[in-house]
Automatic annotation (TrEMBL):
Protein name: CdaR family protein
Organism: Mesonia sediminis
InterPro entries attached to this UniProt entry: c-di-AMP_regulator, YbbR
Pfam families reported in the protein's UniProt record: YbbR
Keywords on record: Membrane, Transmembrane, Transmembrane helix
Residues spanning the membrane: 21-39
Origin superkingdom: Bacteria
Gene3D superfamilies reported for this sequence: YbbR-like domain
Amino acid sequence: MRGFSFSNKRNSILNKSNFKAFAIFASFSFCTWLLIQFSKTYTQEFKLKVIFENFPKDKLVDEREKTVEIRVQTTGFRLFWIGFKNLSLRQDASNLPEEKNYLLYNTGYFKKEIAKELSLDISNVEFLTPSIKLPFSLKTIRELPVKPQININYARGYGAYNPLVVFPEKVKVSGPDHLLKDIDYINTQELNLKNLDKTTQGKVQLAKPHEEVILYKDAITYKAFAEKFTEGRAEVPIEIINKPQEGTLSIFPKKIEVIYQVSLRNFDQVNAQDFQVICDYAKIGENDNFMIAKLKQKPEQVTHVRLSLNKVNFVIKK
């Protein structure tokens, strides 16, 4: 009985040892076979996504992604690695040749790029799709004025005789006709210039009116003028128009003070004779004993002009 037990135990140990040896040998054999198989050269086909960018501004292209098939010849190791990659390329479409209503892309153009991406020799990559056709339609092209959204706040005692200047004043845009026909101008981004005390020049971005509208320029140049201003005053005779047919019309006062802003460099060029203040007798009410004074003429150099008073008393002597 004891001998039987010892024999069974010995056989059990031998069986376990044989199984381990067999498992090790089998694993080694499998790994060796796998290495041999993966070291061999194979040919495999893959799909490659091509994403096109920077289309010509005058063309409307709906399909911006295409898929092509490539055939790769390399070792099993590299094919296994390639199988886990998301194969895609970004390509510039700004200078693609045209064929009727298509942009034509020869896949051979990026053969070198994909070979480099996969770390392969260029001779080991073959494109099964020889070319890509991207259908396009021509966009409408218009030249629209620029409307600056530039707010200027001058420092105390400063102003500008010259208005804000932008360059260029018009920009080219392209897009679907149904969108462009309703667009009259192109806004700039909003820009606030605070406490301006000197002439300033810079760039401001243009605002896209719609996602499908292409701007041929992204920004324009602006120039905001600023110079020292001062207050000027001039006594100007009041001129009466549409005088009554009968009697003598007398007014008080006979002169009125005009108050204005002018740049220091133009201060001496402004005279009282450059202004004209009028009262229109034909516009008085039935029971009125005064007329309203209005500024009819002023020199171009002055801004923020006002009259010291606007009511002029009158009497008619028979």
